[in-house]
Amino acid sequence: MLKAEAFEVAKVREDFPILKRKVHGKRLVYLDNAATTQKPQLVVDALVDFYTRYNSNVHRSVHTLGEEATAAYEAARSKTAKFVGADPKGLVFVRGTTEATNLVRFAWGEKNVKKGDVLVATLMEHHSNIVPWQLLARSKGATLKYVGLNPDGTLDMGQLEDLLREAPRLVAVAHCSNVLGTINEVSAICAMAKKVGATTVVDGAQSVPHMPVDIGAVGADFYAFSGHKMLAPTGVGALAARKELLEEMDPFQSGGEMIKEVFEDHSTWNDVPYKFEAGTVNIADAIGLGTAVDYLSSIGMERVRKHEVALLDYALRALSEVKGVKIYGPPDPARRGGVVSFNYADVHPHDLATILDEEGVAIRSGHHCAQLLMRWLDVPATARASFHVYNSYDDVDALTAGLHKAGKLFRL
Ligand code: C6P
Q1: Cis peptide, bond prior to residue 212, ω within 30 of zero
Q2: Is the beta carbon of 37 within 6 A of some atom in ligand 1?
Q3: Ligand 1: does its nearest atom lie under 6 Å from the Cβ of 343?
Q4: Residue 178 alpha carbon, nearest atom of ligand 1
Q5: Span 183-211, pLDDT tens digits
Q6: What backbone torsions phi and psi does residue 146 show, to the nearest 5 degrees?
Q7: What's 309's domain CATH number?
Q8: Is 38 part of any domain?
Q9: Residues 271-295: what's their mean pLDDT?
Q10: Does the C-beta of 96 come closer than 6 Å to ligand 1?
C-alpha cells in the first residue's frame, strides 16, 4: 500500500484550528473538502488583521487606510493571477464559480449568442455550468446540447467531435468533476473548440484548489474558480479571461466603481477588471484568498497533487475492499482529482453520512448539484469523500471503519 507522504501532514494539520475539535466525542475527520475546505489560522489572521488594522474601502480614498486596503486588495489579485497563470488585468474577483459563469452568461452571452446557435456542455457539469447556459439558450432561442460519458466516467470525445461539427458558439466544461473526480483534457478540448470558433468556459472549481493549473496553457477563453474550496474565505472567487475579451464585453452589474464617466443619458465603463467589479467589493475575503494562495504556494501545488493522488489511491483500494461498495469515476488515481463518490449496497447516502457523522467523519451525500450526472449514473444520490492537504491515511481508515460499522447496522 502506498504510504509515502508528499509533505508532513501532521505539521500542516496544526495550521488548521478546527481540526482540533471533536464531533460526537470523536476526532473530526473532515472529508467534505469538495463542498468547502477548512481555513488555516493564517487566513483567519489575515481577516482579523484587515478589520482591526486597516479596514477601509478600496480604489476611492486617498487616506492611509484607504491606500493600504487598496494595495492589499490589488496584491491579492496579482498573487491569485500568478498562482493560476493568468493576467491580473484579466482576473475579475467574483463571489465564486457560480457568479463567474453567470457573469459570462450576461456580459458575454447576451451580446454574442444568437437565435439558432448551439451551446455545448457535458453531462458531468455542476449545475452552475449548466443552468446559466439553459437560461441563455432560452432567452436567445439557442439550443443547449450535451457531451455524454464513457462507462468509466470520462468524456466521450467522439461525441464532442460530433457536436463541434455543428460549430457551437460556446463549449462549457469542468476541468475536474466534483462527483466522478474525472480530470478532463481541457487544453485539448479548448484547442478543438477554438478551431471551430467556439468560446470556451472552463469550470476550475475542483481543479485550482488541488493541482497546478496554468490557465494560459489551458487556453480557455473563460476560466472560473472559487476561493472557499482552496482554504480561502467564502464569498470570493475569480473569473480569468483575456483582457481584450473582457474589454469587448458589456458590463455585468452596474453602479459605482464600474464606470469611468456618468452622464444623464449614458455612461462609459471603467478599465477591466474594474468594469466587472461594481459596488464595494469583498475586500477582506479577497485579501484572505491572497493569503490562502501564499499558504498553498508554500507547500507547492505539485506536492498538494502528489499527496492527494496517494490518498486517493489508498482510499480507492480501501473502499473497493468493502463488500457492497460501488465506486464511481475513472479507476486510475492519476486521471482523477481528490474526490471519491460511492454507494454502499442499498443504504441511502444520507443514512450513511449520518452514521459516519456519529463517528466524527464528515462526508457529503446527495446529488452534489449534478443531477444530469446522477441520472446518467442511474442513482438518486451518492456518498462522497473528498480530500485536501490536511487529510491523512488515518482519515481514510476512519472512513472505512465507519463503513464497516454501517454495514453491521444494516446487516450487510
Ligand atoms: N460544488 C460540491 O459540494 P460555488 O458554489 O459557486 O463556489 O461553486 C460551484 C461549483 C461549480 N463547479 C463545480 C465543479 C463545483 O464543485 C462547485 C461547487 C460543491 O460539490 C457545492 S455544490
Answers
A1: no
A2: no
A3: no
A4: 16
A5: 999 999 999 999 999 999 999 999 999 99
A6: -120, 140
A7: 3.90.1150.10
A8: no
A9: 98
A10: yes
**Segment 336-350, tens digit of pLDDT:** 999 999 999 999 999
The verdict on 209 and 316 lying in the same domain is no
Instruction: Determine if ligand 1 sits within 6 Å of the CB of residue 206.
Output: yes
Q: Known catalytic residues?
A: 369
What's the Cα-to-Cα distance from 3 to each of 303, 311, 399, 404, 406, rounded to whole Å? 14, 8, 17, 22, 26
Tell whether 263 and 329 lie within a shared domain: no
- End-to-end CA distance of the chain: give it in Å, rounded: 26
Question: Do residues 71 and 205 both lie within one domain?
Answer: yes
- Using the predicted structure, report yes or no on whether residue 3 has a pLDDT greater than 60: no
Give the total number of structural domains in the chain: 2
Domain membership flag for residue 94: yes
Read off the pLDDT of residues 9-39 as tens digits, 9 standing for 90 and up. Answer: 999 999 999 999 999 999 999 999 999 999 9
Tell which phi-psi region holds residue 411, choosing left (phi > 0), alpha (psi between -120 and 50) or beta. Answer: left
How remote is the CA of residue 369 from the centroid of ligand 1, in Å?
7
* CB-ligand 1 contact for 391 (6 Å cutoff): no
Residue 37 in domain = no
Does residue 40 fall inside a structural domain? no
- pTM, 2 dp: 0.98
Half-sphere exposure (CA, 13 Å, Cβ side) for 90?
22
Nearest alpha carbon, ligand 1 atom 5: 98
Domain span holding position 135 = 45-297
Q: Which of 297, 325, 356 is the last residue of a domain?
A: 297
Cβ–ligand 1 distance for 178 under 6 Å, the answer yes
Final residue of a structural domain among 266, 297, 328: 297
Q: In the 8-state DSSP scheme, what is residue 250?
A: P
Tell me, yes or no, whether 312 and 293 share the same domain: no
395: enclosing H helix or E strand: helix 393-409
Cα of 21 to ligand 1 centre, how many Å? 25
Residues 293 and 307 in one domain: no
Q: How far is the CA of 225 from the centre of ligand 1 (A)?
A: 9
Q: How far is the CA of 283 from the centre of ligand 1 (A)?
A: 22
Map residue 115 onto helix, strand or coil.
Answer: coil
Cα–ligand 1 centroid distance for 61 (angstroms): 35
Question: Does the structure show a pLDDT above 50 at 66?
Answer: yes
- Look at ligand 1, atom 8, and give the residue with the nearest C-alpha: 97
